[in-house]
What we know:
Layout: H1 2-16, E1 25-28, H2 39-59, E2 68-71, H3 72-78, E3 83-85, E4 99-102, E5 107-110, H4 115-125, H5 131-138, H6 143-152, E6 157-159, H7 163-168, H8 170-177, E7 182-188, E8 207-211, H9 216-226, E9 230-235, H10 245-248, E10 252-256, H11 262-273, E11 277-280, H12 286-289, H13 294-300, E12 305-310, H14 325-331, H15 334-342, H16 354-377, E13 379-386, H17 387-396, E14 418-422, E15 425-429, E16 434-436
Parallel strand pairs: 1-2, 8-9, 8-11, 9-10, 11-12, 12-13
Antiparallel strand pairs: 2-16, 3-15, 4-5, 5-6, 7-13, 14-15
Amino acid sequence: MADRARSFLDEFLSALDGPPRLPDVALSGGGSLPSVFAVSDLAQASVGAAGAACAALVGTGRTTVPGVTVDRDLASAWFGFSIRPDGWELASPWDAVAGDYATSDGWIKLHTNAPHHRAAALTVLGVPGEREAVTRAVAGWTSDELESAVVGAGGAAAALRAAAEWDAHPQGRAVAAEPLVHREPTSAAPRSTPPAPRIDRPLDGVRVLDLTRVLAGPVATRLLAGWGAEVLRIDPPGWDEPGVVPEVTLGKRCARLDLTVPESRDRFLELLAGADVLVHGYRSDALEGLGLGAELRADVRPGLVDVSLDAYGWAGPWVTRRGFDSLVQMSSGIAHAGMAASGADQPVPLPVQALDHATGYLLAACALTGLARRRSEGTGSRWRTSLARVSRLLVDGGIAEGPDGPGIDPAPPAPGGAMERTPWGDARRLPAPVVVDGAPLRWSRPAGHLGSSAPEWESA
């Protein structure tokens, strides 16, 4: 297990091409999530990459770099849910219609959590939002035809494909040809020398503008908040994701802006001008469509660390396709491999949304490395990755002959952790999965509702 986690970690750090003085990363613990893929190795490695990037930032301009320790069991648990409600329950993250359905020639997943995605799927199928009606209607379609129809109608769906089918698919080939991380320098930062990062709060004074939704981007910005960043999340009016908001808004302020409205767009540009990091997870052409393209962002905020993700990669015929972790698992062969290895008669996904979480920690590592480069080289930078490219990394790690190790429970591994007073009720948050010596993760505010703050920076 340690060898595979170390191999994943080396690939993450190589993709970052970060400072040459990287820390020692100790990998502790021995449990694994039950999966035919190395999910716990991926968890430990991605968390370790973020920890290493934080330690490298702290070490910039100093003689020593702090050490890093990653607990495998805790990293695996944070890939599930880190919050443990006390006397209340989390809302289901899944819509009643969402899920896997048998087609005339295979399987398809319909992702209907967002109301407009649900409406698109039901319109294509011509049925009400009842699972039995959807099941009957889907059975009359081939997988590819229904996938194309739902996506064409503005919905989100993915046909089940074997890994070999994905490798031969034009989008699979495009993803395989991409680097794990695209990185490039952008505009020069202001000439004033930023203060050295505090050892105990490495991101104190750093402003992070968060334009992300479920789940990878919010994981990244949650981690940055834990090391002291001021994170301001922006959502459009009416948007909600109740199944994960208590999980991912820890440490953040959350506001709303409608970027299609000129006044809100102007306010966003004012916020961007004061940001150090922008993290966004819209489709690859979405910000350009709003008149907020990469060149404008670099001009509005010279020295900006601009970090982004999409679902299916940055090249190929699906470059602008809507996607989520569970859909990429269907497309890229993961759910098919789980089905084949377990002898099941339906798709078997990973036990957690591992692509989202691993990508989230990689995004955080990109942001931290970008801040270190800005301090040492005086330039901003742009960083891009995708769920599909992280899926490629996991699949290339190989399939185990059986479940990966003895297995741990991804839901409630242990009591304990800090008490958190949230708007929904008290809860406990699991202990942090990574320790950077001298820079403990700690969050200054509990999780909260979307839209509960004004769209403004709290710090002067």
